[in-house]
Amino acid sequence: QFQTNSFEQLCINYANERLQQQFNWDIFKAEQAEYEAEGIEWQAIEFVDNQECLDLIDKKSSMGLLHLLDEECKIQRGTDEKFAQKARQTHAEHKDFDAPKGDQLTFAVKHYAGCVAYLCSGFREKNKDTLHQDLAAVMQQSQAEVVLALFPSEAPERESKRAGKPKAKGSDTMTVGSQFMTQLSSLMRTINATDVHYVRCIKPNTLNKPAIFDMAHSAHQLRCAGVLEAVRISRMAYPNRMPHASFVSRYALLAPSEWQAAHEVDMARARAAAPGDESARALCEGALALVVEDVARYQLGKTKVFFRAFLLEALEQRRGNALATYAVVVQKMLRSALWSRRFRLLRLSSVRLQALRRRQVQLSEYRRQRAAAIALAAAGRGLRARILRRRLLAAVRIQAAGRAAAARDRVYHLRRRLCATRLQAAVRSHRHRSAFTARRGAALRLQSKARMASQRRAYLRDLAEKKEEAKLSTQLAKLQARLQAEMEARQNAERALEAGAAADEGSGSGAAVAGDGGGVAGIAGAAASWVLGNMGGPSTSVEETSTMLSVVTKDRERLGQRLAAETEARKRLEAEKRELERKLNMGSATSQVETRSHRQIAEALSRTKDEVGEKTRIMQNQTIEIANLQNTKTALERRILALEKKISQYDDSFYALEARNVRDKTRMEEMGKAKSRAEEEKNICRLMLEQAHERWLKERSDLRKDALQKIQTNAARVREQRMQIAELQQAHRAQRQLAEEAKMYKEQCTVLMEKLSRAGVGGGTTPAASPGGVPSPRARPGGAVAAPLKAPSAANLLEKMKSSVSSSGLLGRATSKESPRAPPPAPDAP
Known about the structure:
Elements: H1 7-38, H2 51-58, H3 65-74, H4 80-90, E1 97-98, E2 106-110, E3 115-119, H5 123-127, H6 133-140, H7 145-150, H8 156-164, H9 176-192, H10 215-225, H11 227-236, E4 240-243, H12 244-251, H13 257-262, H14 264-271, H15 278-291, E5 298-300, E6 304-307, H16 311-507, H17 510-535, H18 540-587, H19 596-662, H20 664-762, H21 794-808, H22 810-817
Antiparallel strand pairs: 1-2, 2-3, 4-6, 5-6
Helix pairs in contact: 1-2, 1-9, 3-4, 12-14, 12-15, 16-17, 16-18, 16-19, 18-19, 19-20, 20-21, 20-22
């Protein structure tokens, strides 16, 4: 549902109404037509028909809503308000039309799925939103099949009608509503000409989440789609049906076994019979009479059997039970056959095992006896062989002793000869080794001297070239600075010349102008002569510098040209990409055409898009490769310099090693020098380490002192704080003791006052209060006046308490830290 329903929703709901009518026709009316064709007795069932709602929208004779809108669009001064007013006046009595009184631009239509309210604002503008006829004619003359399919030409009958009638203003334009009705009618004709199958899509929930099923929402969708109504109507009649042959082949097993045996041949023929065969129909009728007791729950048609609701489910349940019973019998027979076969196999196996066991016993006994006989024979042969072996061994020992004596004599002579040969070889080897070592040392010394001389010459040549390069770089920097200074001097001279000319024009003095001009000319000439003097004269360094500058400039220009070419190629690729994207956007308008050409164009566009993407990636890769090449070039230059340095270092070390190998004395001296330097460095390092150790010890001692000082300061502060806390606790205890003593004294004063009051009451007279607050004297029984009793006041008691506390020294210490509040004064005694 939408918050505001406009012209688009009206067209959509109109299409849904038309499709719902087609659904009703295909489901309900086709069902009744099948009943009539099969000769089934049935009663006409009423179902909801939405033809009146469709007439309200598209019927021309009664001026439906779309025709009213077309008429209002043809009027020049037509408005949406007039369209709403006309709709209210024309269809006020229609049962599917409703117009609320509060809003004049709103009307409601009672569709099959529910009542929908439409707002008329923008109806005329949206209905007239069509393509201009000239543009449509141009597009119809295109040579492309896709464009021709998007812009079809008008029907010939309409053109003939236009040829016979005068062309009215605005009549050559077909509105959106009329186009929609025409296309919908064409769709209905296509549907009627085909075999339609309906697929209802149900949205399980409004949250668009899985595993959530809203039953109320789904039932509402089924009700709006007419599925529940179709199910209800189907259950009121005969929802299940089946051909005669299928029924006989599936449910004949429910009939008695005698009937099955009697009609076995007929059932085999019925399974292969054509629809409507009389023999199959008669056999089916007989099976139905035996299987179904209630005749009112089914009807026998010409080619099919029609069942009431729930009858087919009952038959299926009975068939399942029967098949289960037959399955049990089959399982019983199969188990019996399997176990019989297993028993026979077990018995045969036992017999074979017994035979094999007896054979094994006999074979083992035979092998035992044979082994015993072989052992006895072997023992006899062994004894004879041992006696013969002892005799042979005695003869062999004698022969071995003789051969050993001869061999020892021969070995002695061979050893003497070998020792003499080794002495001779050692002497000759020493003499030849000494001569070879002398010659090799001389050759190595000669080679090292020659290499040293060549390397020294190469080193001096390279050093001269490096110095020359450094001199050239210095001269180049100086020349650049000098050129910059000359350019600044020339600019200053030009500014001075312009300033002098302006001043001369303002003053009007010709002589001054001439003088200034001469001065400026002199300045310019001096600057030019200075530049020529500084840069004049042929110099080899200047020429080399200019050559280097020209080479660098050419390299820079070549790199700039390559970068410009890459930039142009990138721009060209981007332009091709934009062009292809534009073509893709134009090709998206043809997405509704379901033809082979559309698919080919879509594939071509996708391939082009892939090519554009590939070119873009190639361009990006080229850019990255250029950057990588530049980085690689820089890295290679650095690596070349590093390798040259390493090569020079390796050459130096190689020649140094060769020289050390040749000159042993020099090597020893160098080793001694290196050792002395190492000792010096070691001593220096030791001194540095000792100094660092001393500094570290000093810093550690300073830090330790600072830490100890801080610790002592913190400890003193802590001690002071603890003393303050102790004094505060002592003062608090003193204050609490004072409060307890004051309470005790107050209780004593109260007791004393009670005693005094009881003493006054015991005399039998009520004491009269004197103006001073002292009780009047009591009269004694003898007539004498008794002396007045003076009760100690609370003030006196407090003074005593303070004096006692001050004498003990507690009050002074308490008031020195903090002055606690004095306890509230006790009330005066009466």
